[in-house]
Specification:
Rossmann fold; 2 domains; five-stranded parallel beta sheet; WalR-like; transcription cis-regulatory region binding
């Protein structure tokens, strides 16, 4: 299990990241103290660091530069800044990748998996598994036994969201907001179409009744 350290001063975002990583089968670590961060990271010895740029006492960029004096631990900057200059600063400060807020959970998980694989921390990349079905976060595929299905972007994101909330009823509105949160209006039928296609692809690889419809409520794994 790969340990990922979260350095984020917003407590609600930090908690959100903690739960996201835990549900994705990582070992999350966090800190609410924002002094001597390079030393904290060294002591925690994570496999990867999620580092906010805007921190109370020192910029995440400065933290990463200090960290690079004695450690090559992979760093992904998570920041509200999203210009090309901000991205360049993150990379030239020693970061391995950069993602802006608000981020999409599947995109962040895919970035984490890609960095772990690229830096040699992971041989196979990250995946999510439930009831024998494995989601490859890099290839956007679903595998069951020896069969594999390629998923569209929306089909993949629907399944990732459901995997992250196993045992819970996920409302249609929750899925719509996760998939299309930047759009003003979405035809509710669009979700139904994507769900039908997803179920069809799962059936093609021998997976039936994985996604349960809760009438009037939503969906549940």
């Amino acid at each position: 299990m790969y340990k990922i350290m979260i350095i984020e001063d917003d407590a609600s975002i930090r908690r959100e990241l903690y739960l996201l990583l835990k549900n994705a089968s990582y070992e999350p670590a966090e800190t609410a103290l924002f002094t001597d961060l390079p030393q904290q990271i060294q002591k925690e010895n994570p496999d990867l660091v999620l580092l906010d740029v805007n921190l109370p006492y020192e910029s995440g960029l400065g933290v990463c530069r200090e960290l690079r004096q004695f450690s090559d631990v992979p760093v992904i900057f998570v920041t509200s800044q999203n210009t090309s200059m901000d991205e360049l600063e993150c990379i030239t400060s020693g970061g391995d990748d950069y993602i802006s807020k608000p981020y999409q959970a599947p995109i962040l998980l895919a970035r984490i998996a890609a960095v772990l694989k690229r830096t040699g921390k992971s041989q196979d990349g990250a995946s999510l598994t439930y009831k024998g079905v494995t989601l490859d976060l890099l290839a956007c595929t679903a595998r069951y036994q020896d069969r594999e299905a390629e998923l569209s972007k929306n089909e993949f994101r629907i399944l990732v969201y459901l995997f992250q909330h196993t045992g819970q009823v996920v409302s249609r509105m929750d899925l719509i907001e996760d998939l299309w949160d930047n759009q003003v209006f979405i035809d509710d039928n669009t979700l139904s179409v994507n769900m039908t296609r997803l179920r069809g692809k799962l059936a093609d690889i021998g997976v039936r009744d994985l996604i349960e419809t809760k009438r009037g409520l939503g969906y549940k794994l």
